[in-house]
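Data deposition worksheet. Section B asks for the primary sequence of the deposited chain exactly as it was used as input, without tags or linkers unless they were present during the calculation. Section C holds the resulting structure in token form. Section D is free text for depositor observations; keep each observation to a single sentence. Incomplete worksheets are returned to the depositor.
Section A, Depositor: J.P.
Section B:
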Amino acid sequence: MEADIRHMKWWGWGYEDVTFDDSTKPELWPYLKRELGVDEIRWKKPVAFEDVTLPEQKNNEAFLAAIGAGLGEGQVVDDKKSRLVHAAGKSFRDLWLMRHGQVQFAPDCVVYPDTEEDVALVVRAAHEHGVVLVPFGGGSNIAGCLVPSDRGGRMVVSLDMCRMHRVLEVDRYSLTARIQPGVYGQHLEDQLAEHGVTLGHFPDSFLHSTLGGWVATRSAGMQSDIYGKIEDMVISLRMVTPSGTIITRTVPKSSNGIDIKHLCIGSEGILGVITEVVVQVHHKPEKEDWYGWLFPDFKSGLDAIHECHRGDCMPTVTRLNDPKKTALSFAFKHPKTGIKDKIAKAFKWYIGNVKKIDFNQCCLMVVKYEGTPQAFNRIKNRVTAIYKKHRGVCLGAEPGRSFAKVKFDFPHLRDYVMDRSIMADVSETATTWDNLRTLHESGLADVEQAIKDTGVDAWVGCHLSHSYRTGASLYFTFGCLQREGREIEQYLYVKKAAEDAFMKNGGTLSHHHAVGTEHLPWVEEDLSPTGLKAVKALKAGLDPNDIMNPGKIIPSEKPLDDWGLSAEAIDEFQSRS
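Section C:
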């Protein structure tokens, strides 16, 4: 099966012919306008492609000659559009700079390997001739993992893996699949479906991200409650490094010393290039469906999820919004008309007057069940009993199904608000069950205060996105009007508040978005100084010439300064408090 390989637009999310349409969401802009204190829209559309100037191209002729002898026609390109598409990921900072034509870094060319042999050829040549390589999957990363920078002024090459996109083998008896890394989510699932199986990994970036990218960043899909994160799915892998190719055995478990496989997972391209992955797969469920629930407050929803874990009856997907995220979800929905509108109003009256749920504090939850018809009904009934015990009210299938239809559309909302000079971003973390409420409350308060420090109204919400027996991930979303002329400093100041809150309240710097550049200042605190020393030793051992995606995971001596937020800017914003 061949894939229709298309890159995302260089200035935003999704394909160039896809935009966010708010015509079916009449409550969305009025809600955002009211919450953010927008008097008049300050439009800020992306600059034209013709007005973008890329950094001067650097060519290492010895390197180009070495790879040219082994690669075919069309595998090495250096046109402006290709360089621009591969110049950044999709973090807020990435997109703001791109939309304003401020392209600070860009690869000097893009290489499209067809095989592992092609990858090995490129890596060897880069190692020998001092050329920087940045592995590229779908370009969807929002943590700055793809910034193709090199302080030494060396040639930088983006290694786009999209031609290596095939499911090579499926073992239906062992339930494993051997897959190339450049396959996009939908194409992967289409190929697996031919064998009646699924990986079950569905991140929000599913349509525009790849298996190799998931592994390199330790991604989480929305079904991680049952299937685990990507590191729980990987059985074995192959990774080409400047010092040779790492190959791990396809066995379920082993006791062979330090786990080399897990040193590769989450390595963000700083050690090498993942060229093949063996993953565990699952039979396609016979039945699946989504449902919506409403809880009186965030604590009730958390307690219900916690009890489901203790009772071993978790749905496949559980996403709990706090009150702010619930209000945004309601503003996002398609309005009802006719008899459906009357029924909805009557049900809302019932929830408020009979169930005594305050709509200013209520929390929306969407869940998905799957399995055989018998297993589906069994877990649905058990979960329903627990949710009702915690004062949950079932809203039926429609809210869940509506979420399922648009679950991959939410990233488009950021382009929509950036057109209107609004900063919007996310920071996610994870902690243990006993600490969730503290981290939730502190995170909200600290991010809200940071936004107010910059002189504008704040919108901050959170949802529980992934949960496990010992804890869960909290996914914070925040937005505000941009301070004209101070947009990046404002963003970094608010982002810092979020990460600081995670660190001081027992969270991690990221649950599934990786380190990249946007989380670099907190790596040492998260890993410990000795842990960071181990990462540096691993990097030096496998990549002694530092050609593999430099500047990621390992921070500089002055991480905040190099990050882009000066002490003067911090003092200025804090003085407003």
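Section D:
The two ends are 58 Å apart (CA to CA).
The chain has 22 helices and 18 strands.
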